[in-house]
Amino acid sequence: MTENLQSLYEFATDLAYRAGRITLGYFNAGVRPDYKEDDTPVTVADRAAEQFIRAEIEKRYPKHAILGEEFGETASGSVFRWIIDPIDGTKSFMRGIPLYGVLIGLEVEGVVKVGAAYYPGTDEMLCAAEGLGAWWNGRPARVSEIDSLDRAFLCYTNIRNMAKYNREEAWERISAVAYASRGWSDAYGYLAVATGRAEVMLDPIMNIWDCGPFPVIIKQAGGFFGSWDGREGHTHNEALACNAAIKEQLLALINS
Fold this sequence. Notes:
Blueprint: H1 2-24, E1 34-35, E2 41-42, H2 44-60, E3 65-68, E4 72-74, E5 80-88, H3 90-94, E6 101-108, E7 111-119, E8 124-129, E9 133-136, E10 139-140, E11 153-156, H4 160-164, H5 168-177, E12 180-182, H6 187-194, E13 200-203, H7 214-220, E14 223-226, E15 239-243, H8 247-255
Parallel strand pairs: 3-5, 11-12, 11-13
Antiparallel strand pairs: 1-2, 3-4, 5-6, 6-7, 7-8, 8-9, 9-10, 13-15, 14-15
Helix pairs in contact: 1-2, 5-8
């Protein structure tokens, strides 16, 4: 499996990069979004990047399942399932903010084993595979060693969602202790944790395609990715990423 993961990892990384370059053709180019039923935006860049990613996977791995944000799921039933978000952070993208990412994860029997997240606006590649480590632009990616929340940087996406999804009290306890909180949101917050530039990223609501690559990336970087009650994985409809040193402090504050 290690040998297979190596080739899958290389494929995913190359694919995320090439899809990201497609998005740059539309970035800061006056692209106007459409709005989906849930009032979230989608642009021609989202659709073009996902169509490209799907076509490349179907050509290389025709029996694999694919789940993407914009075009749903195909070939369900395979032990291999690719999870795609062509632009995570479309709201940032459409306003010319470069903190968006192209996300590709690969599940093997329900567990994410390969992940690639490319940030075209800042030209940062974050990628990992189980047993192969996590890498940031060719260098090892490692979470920080800060072991106290009072020296930790805390990231979030939409602070209004804390109250909307009944996490306001937990958020207030954590943010009151943390050294600083910053809205380095969506996929970029998880990049910051994986590379030691922040210690915590919190999302009280999370779709599977919005975090496909991060379970394996954060774990291989030495951290934790999972639910607010400490369960690993990407299927809990919420997300918490942190370095290993402060995980228990976080869980204690959430559950107090």
